[in-house]
Amino acid sequence: MGECLIIGGAGMLGLRLAKALAAKGAIGGTPLDNITLFDVVEAPAIEAAIEVTARTGDLTAPGAADSLIASRPAIIYHLAAIVSGEAERDFDKGYRINLDGTRHLFEAIRQEHLRSGYCPRVVFSSSLAVFGAPLPDVIGDDQVLTPMSSYGTQKAIGELLLADYTRRGFMDGIGIRLPTICIRPGKPNAAASGFFSNILREPLVGEEAVLPVSPDVRHWFASPRAAIGFLVHAGDIEADRIGTRRNLTMPGVTATVAEEIEALRRLAGDAAVARIRHVPDAAIDAIISTWPKAFDATRALGLGFTPDTSFDAILDAHITDEQIELSA
User: Fold this and answer.
1) pTM of the model
2) What three-state secondary structure class fits 124?
């Protein structure tokens, strides 16, 4: 039996992942008897057939990572991060959380490996922001990392660390570059990409939303459902199938903002679309303009990662999962 540690476990993805793993009861062929959710705030209780424990703390605090690793969890999901917009506004905070926190975690694993041979599967949540202009319209698996934001730089460094610590045998790591999650439930966050969800989520429940960029902006998306599927599969997949290239881009759906809005119109009507106000924001546009638009994720597809089928399917999944009643 084994433990799963989810760092960033109080967030939307962390909680949904915990529920999926608890229902599955195993990961990577190892039966689970405990899931630990670690975050700066306490995760809400989850009803599950196995034990789910919430812990709070700061991963960058002295000894915090060592304490988390002391129980030697069989699999570790590192989902915690300061999101893109906030990392750009607060340079020190972004590097402390996104880089120092990751390094502390990896070092704690390495030290335990040197003591006992401990070698967990580590799934690192990375980002499309590791890529930057100039970019081809469709990005393949061999595209070099050229981040053009502090957040993207921090994630790119995390990918390199994960690959090196895995190469040295300290852990069995896999980094997955998640598409922008859409539609993200709950309240808007500080991510520069947040408007992609806001312009759909708020109008669906009768609220106004602001669009800060041009409708012709194109981006790469995955639903929360698909993202959880990626994370679970990343924990299950055999190490020899991944090979030496330990970081890969997840498959997704490419769409423009205009195509998002037309999907909203098809499912919720003109009244929902009318709740979107176009208010240009140069700071958001400057960040988004450096991000990739579409990918050829052949490698991830070949390894069994499964994307959404269309943007309409992404929108429909949100309506179903959040139990939204559409007006006639």
Assistant:
1) 0.94
2) strand
Phi, psi values for residue 172, rounded to 5°: -115, 90
Q: Look up 151 and say whether it is catalytic.
A: yes
- Cα separation, 255 vs 250, in Å, equals 16
Q: What is the pLDDT of residue 327?
A: 64
With bands split at pLDDT 50, 70 and 90, how would you rate the model's confidence at 318? Answer: very high
**What does the pLDDT look like over 215-248, one tens digit per residue?**
999 999 999 999 999 999 999 999 999 999 999 9
CB-CB contact of 88 with 192 (8 Å): yes
Burial label, 257 (beta-carbon count in 10 A; 0-12, 13-18, 19+): buried
Q: Can you name the residues that pair with 278 across neighbouring β-strands?
A: 211
The catalytically annotated residue of 77, 95, 118, 151 is 151
Give residues with Cβ within 8 angstroms of 183, minimum separation 6: 197, 200, 201, 223, 224, 314, 315, 318
DSSP 17: H
User: Taking a C-beta distance cutoff of 8 angstroms, is the pair 94, 60 a contact?
Assistant: no
Asked if residue 219 lies in contact with residue 254, where contact means CB atoms within 8 angstroms, the answer is yes
CA 285, CA 63: separation in Å to the nearest integer?
39
* Rounded Cα distance, 108 and 315, in Å: 40
* DSSP annotation string for 161-207: HHHHHHHTTS-EEEEEEEPEETTPPSS--S-GGGHHHHHHHHHHTT-
